[in-house]
Amino acid sequence: MADLSTVQRHYRAPCPGCGAPVAFRSAQSAFAVCGYCQSTVVRQGEVLSRIGKMAELFDDHSLLQLMASGTLDGQGFTLVGRLQYTYGEGSWTEWQALLNDGSTGSLSEDNGAYVFSRPVAPGRDLPAADQFRVGATTAISGQTYSVASNQQVALRSAQGELPRLPALGQPFAMVELRGQDSAQVLSIDFGPTLAGAPPAVSLGRPITLDELQMSGLKDQSAKDEKGRQFNCPNCGATVEVALAQSQSITCKSCNSLIDLSAGIGGELRHAEQHEPMRPLIPLGTLGQLEGVVWQVVGFQHRMGQEPGDDEQFGWQEYLLYNAKRGFSFLVDATDGWSLVRPVTGAPLLAANGQSATWQGTTYRQQYAYKAETTYVAGEFYWQVQRGQKTDNRDFASGKQLLSMEQSRNEITWSSGRKIESATVASAFKLEGQKDLLKRDDAAPFTAARSVGIIPLIVMLVAILMVLSLLSRCSRCDPRVENCSSSSARTSGGSYGGSSSGGGHK
User: Fold this and answer.
1) What is the pTM of this model?
2) CB 317 within 8 A of CB 403
């Protein structure tokens, strides 16, 4: 735990709004929010001035709280402030950390995990925010980065003491860069600065709460007893939220998709979903894959279409959750199953786009297509919506997989590997449905080179026979299988990953 008494002399003065004590522990903190009356306070020397009132925090159900402490690289720190931001696809929270040496940092969420960042000097003048094009590369301080996100964000609420404080509700640009073939995250905050001052830049890396040796977290049992329940805004049925990070959830009674990004206390938006689909692996099911026990918490059906092709193909993704590992995706495609999870860094994409390198392995592009989410069930850590569209690229190296999803303001990379359908059946104790789960448990993409000419001819004849049958009968039940109007394409689609949530926002 950070020993704040060794950092500096604490400064405490009465709140100009209500008279309650307001403490400043960090010499770098210029602002604070009174914990009693929510007054926004600015510190000018030894004088506190009230400049407004902060909006109420929304309940993001985080285990973190003010004065929770931990250790980073052998140095203690304490969480002294909290900023809640909103953007087009949802919201996120950044916790301000005060380290023993008096420096500051921030702890923010990244795809169900966490990123700890420290302020850095960019080493050069930075261009305007609109010059950072998503997908482009740039060099800062000798390191090459890929632009992963460029969003207009706004402060929704704040708590505690803060080194800087954007105006409430006023949008500004936030750009996020990912280290190429590394896990570094560089964030550029174009929010308010002193006249002539450059944007605020911070550099971080992914980390777990266990690695930070966090203490003083909210009591887990108290959180569970409190629960998160509300009435569905469409049908009135009780909806229970199980995950702390959930930004979207579906009503089990009417299948409406409900937006939780503003917190349960806010106005809940919803969208009706007709023709519900039935996941082959029921929501809530526990299964063990790669030595980790996962719970199925979300399900989505997606459709894809390649450029110049009038036909579509479909696949399904199961969102898996583990309290220590965060989130992964189990993907059910026509050419087999795969297990993938988002990566924090940015693989190095070749200039011609036909290959990508990640952690020393080169992956070859297999497919490029547009994807659309058509049905959603369960809970998601990003604000998933029906009709969300992305541009996707799938890469492979043997059974190792890599995928890229790009929306207008964000790029998300995911990596993983193919797994056998029998492994899926065994993991989720569905041996009785083994045949239903069976796919073209494809060997690696490169395995086709070792296949003789006779087997290839037999395979070609079989494909032609299947196409002939499908031309006579095009009926498909999406509740029990992947529907596709094109059976000639062997891949079932994306290797997984979310269409949003790629940044730690």
Assistant:
1) 0.69
2) no
